[in-house]
Amino acid sequence: MALESRITQEEIKREPEKPIDREKTCPLLLRVFTTNCGRHHRPDEFARGNVPSSELQIYTWMDATLKELTSLVKEVYPEARKKGTHFHFSIVYPDLRGKVYRLRDLGNTISGRKGTDDSMTLQSQRFQIGDYLDIAITPPNRVPPLNPRMRPF
């Protein structure tokens, strides 16, 4: 008889997080790399100690939400402030089996709209100090249709 787990991904993501006292906890340096073409950087752009040139350095805490990080990026890039701009977040981390980096999807936010990933935190997604954050910024006029059943042909 096979046993089946009844724990869903949503329940896993809802693990209780320890509250962070930002007055007493030192912030971490988050190295953020952005593109404004809607695509993430390739993992090989992080190889051998190299990093892409579009780096932002943000001091924040592990309980920072994607919406909070979105607002910090919009302060630096005025063109990303337009309503409907999409921000797609990925964690860039070193693969311990080799000398390569991997990207793992984190979530999405949309400028000017509320979304399901807005309150997602770095801590809830197992972000580790030393990992990078890669954000693919897509202007509102270049966003693909939200419905995957809609085809351009």
> Beta fraction of the residues?
25-35%
Overall geometry = globular
Number of strands: 5
Widest β-sheet, arrangement of strands: 2-1-5-3-4
Radius of gyration: 17 Å
Poorly predicted segments: 145-153
User: How far apart are the first and last residues' alpha carbons, in Å?
Assistant: 48 Å
Please estimate the helix content. Answer: 10-25%
Main sheet overview: 5 strands, mixed
What do the pLDDT scores average to?
A: 81
Q: Assign the structural class, choosing from mainly alpha, mainly beta, alpha/beta, alpha+beta, or little secondary structure.
A: alpha+beta
Separate helix tally: 2
List the helices and strands in order: HEEHEEE
Describe this structure in words.
The longest helix has 11 residues. A 5-stranded mixed β-sheet has the order 2-1-5-3-4. The protein is built from 2 helices and 5 strands, in the order αββαβββ. With 153 residues, it is of the alpha+beta class. The C terminus is likely disordered. A hairpin with a 6-residue loop joins strand 3 and strand 4.
Q: Secondary-structure map with pairings?
A:
Layout: H1 9-13, E1 28-35, E2 55-60, H2 66-76, E3 86-94, E4 101-110, E5 132-138
Parallel strand pairs: 1-5
Antiparallel strand pairs: 1-2, 3-4, 3-5
Keywords:
single chain; 5 strands; 153 residues; alpha+beta
Brief synopsis:
Helices cover 10% and strands 26% of the residues. The protein contains 2 helices and 5 strands.
